[in-house]
Amino acid sequence: MKLIVLMSTYNGEKYLRQQLDSLLNQKLMPNKIVIRDDGSTDNTLDIIDEYEQHYSFIEHYQGQNKGPAKSFFELINNCEDADYYALCDQDDVWFEDKLSSAIEQLNKEDNNKPLLYCCRYTLTDENLNPIETNISSLYSYTDFAHSLLYQTSPGCTFVFNHEARKRVMEYDIENNYCMIHDSIIHKIVTMFGKMILDEKSHIYYRQHGDNEIGLSGNKIKAFTNRIEHFTSGKSRSTRSNMAKSLLKVFGTKCSIENKELMDIVANYQDNSVLKKQLLTNPKFKVDSLNYFFYKILVLVNYI
Questions:
Q1: How far apart are CA 174 and CA 172, in angstroms?
Q2: Tens digit of pLDDT at every position of the chain (303 positions)
Q3: Is this structure's pTM higher than 0.85?
Q4: Do 156 and 206 form a contact (C-beta atoms < 8 A)?
Q5: Which stretches within 1-140 are classed as H helix?
Q6: Helix residue ranges per DSSP H, 61-161
Q7: Cα(303)–Cα(64) distance, rounded to whole angstroms?
Q8: Cβ contacts of 274 within 8 Å, gap of 6 or more
Q9: How far apart are CA 28 and CA 280, in angstroms?
Q10: Is 284 helix (H, G, I), strand (E, B) or coil?
Q11: Which of 215, 225, 226, 270 is the most buried if burial means most Cβ atoms within 10 Å?
Q12: Cβ neighbourhood burial of 57 (10 Å; 0-12, 13-18, 19+)
């Protein structure tokens, strides 16, 4: 069994050592850790060089700054073949059973189809003090319909097999829509294979001022952040745009049912029949409060 950890770094000197040490403390050690640096200007590369000199299975290369999504996609596309691949951020800390728990569950499944494992996480402040919140357990959906609308867990918890990687590599991120890499992987794997959700936490998900995408354990702050995000329009049409790109790439390769689900999300803004389906189809339904907000977003053509 061959397992590769794929890490993207960018100006991560503050927390990188803790993350690398947690990788080296895994019960199940990866065969290789491949790091792509996304154009750091701090001491990140010096830290990586230090670890690389002591551990032969760590290797890195530096590229131009292109953001986390394209950086991770480059890692996925360019790495050598393996049985499993784990995505890793530079600023978290993994529990020692992070990889062993993932592989144990993945090995129970049919590896001839795309598989994606993700787990719950423990939200922390910058000093790794846990933040009391229910954000981690907000969504428990592992089906394709819900993947078009909601992210179950962040990419830093992802471990996927070779069949999943092959499918993900069919998506050209340079010429198709992308907000963030984990959202694409989540959708592609649930379209063709299976997602496994581990309800246990195996990672400290650190929140700090430099997070590319941050969360807040404070309910009031989280709510105000959500309102600000909504009113700024930053996430307007992200789901429908993503569905359009997925439909273009995989529409002739996936099941008729999944093609129809993508069509609903992709084109509801210009089609009243599809909008009604998006509002009423039980496959898209979530808990009552979030379902209420979801319907409002659909009605104003926001998703």
A1: 5
A2: 999 999 999 999 999 999 999 999 999 999 999 999 999 999 999 999 999 999 999 999 999 999 999 999 999 999 999 999 999 999 999 999 999 999 999 999 999 999 999 999 999 999 999 998 888 788 899 999 999 999 999 999 999 999 999 999 999 999 999 989 999 999 999 999 999 999 999 999 999 866 544 454 455 555 555 555 555 566 789 999 999 999 999 999 999 999 999 999 999 999 999 999 999 999 999 877 778 888 999 999 999
A3: yes
A4: no
A5: 16-24, 44-54, 68-78, 98-106
A6: 68-78, 98-106, 144-147
A7: 32
A8: 263, 264, 267, 268
A9: 45
A10: helix
A11: 215
A12: middle
Tokens standing for residue 278: 């998006």
Cα–Cα distance measured from residue 199 to residue 119, given in angstroms and rounded to the nearest whole number = 6
Residue 148 identity (one-letter amino acid): L
Phi-psi region of 284 (alpha: psi -120 to 50; beta: other; left: phi over 0): alpha
d(CA 275, CA 69): 30
State the distance between the two ends of the chain, measured CA to CA, in whole angstroms: 40
Distances (CA, A) of 235 to 35, 53, 241: 29, 42, 10
Distance CA 195, CA 160 (A): 9
Name residue, tokens 């290789």.
Answer: 32
- Name residue, tokens 């819900």: 146
Distance separating alpha carbons of residues 14 and 58, to the nearest angstrom: 19
Backbone dihedral angles phi then psi of residue 166, each to the nearest 5 degrees: -60, -40
